[in-house]
Amino acid sequence: MVPALCLARCRSRLRHHQRALDAGFEGLVVTVDSPVYNNREIDVRNGLVFPPRVTLKTAIDSLKHPRWLVGTAGRYYLAEGKLPAFSNIHVPEEAKAEATGYVSAKSSSFLNRNETLTWDFLKRVRDAWPHKLLVKGVLHPDDAVTAADCGADGIFVSNHAGNVNDTAVTPWDALPAIRQAVGDRLTIIADSGVRRGSDVLKGLALGADVIAIGRATLYGVGAAGEAGATRALEILESEITRTMAVLGVTDIPSIGREHILLPNELPVSGTGTG
Known about the structure:
The chain is α/β, with parallel strands linked by helices. The chain has helices spanning about 15-20, 40-45, 55-65, 65-80, 95, 105-110, 120-130, 140-150, 170-180, 195-205, 215-245, and strands spanning about 5, 25-30, 130-140, 155, 185-190, 210.
């Protein structure tokens, strides 16, 4: 696994690249599909604030789930001396103090989403960054080609799990045209909506080189910490293996376009695996 720093939504982003180099990061991910804040209605209804903090509502909810409170939050507190937090994100103290809504004024300045991101900026990042450069949030073949023209090494075909634009095309629908447009110029990583091992194989069959899995492991972490994430990966691996057996495929590189049918497609003679 190549360490990568997500340079997402950061104003004056170029000033951070030297810090990333000094820290030994070998990859840089520029997120391009969320220039403004997401409309997370469920978080608004639940009164979530960023940075997260314990409220009366969350305290009551935790007490209703004693197994999680003791087994996950309690174990974390005993080991770390604090409640679970975003360990890879440093939030200024003044932002924490003023977090009165989902995103406070100070925390929003920290997150620094910026609607001025352009392809010219990506070229500047490419000139400044000597290692792998990835662009996350691509759903159109033309954008994939432009990313390649700007010098990107790879792209994430991703709709941000639908939480940026709930009417966006799914990555799985976008993958075939993107793969056809860029050929082998880019490494294609796909994510969003991966719930089963069969979803992983679908993405690979439609043209992705790599499938990124996030939510399943986050659910695992939420349920049982590191052991939960490990268990989630074990479940996905078993589902992948089982589905490959059903398809009559013995290795991942053998997964191809002939192993999946999109809506309104019919099986093509001569493409079966026997």
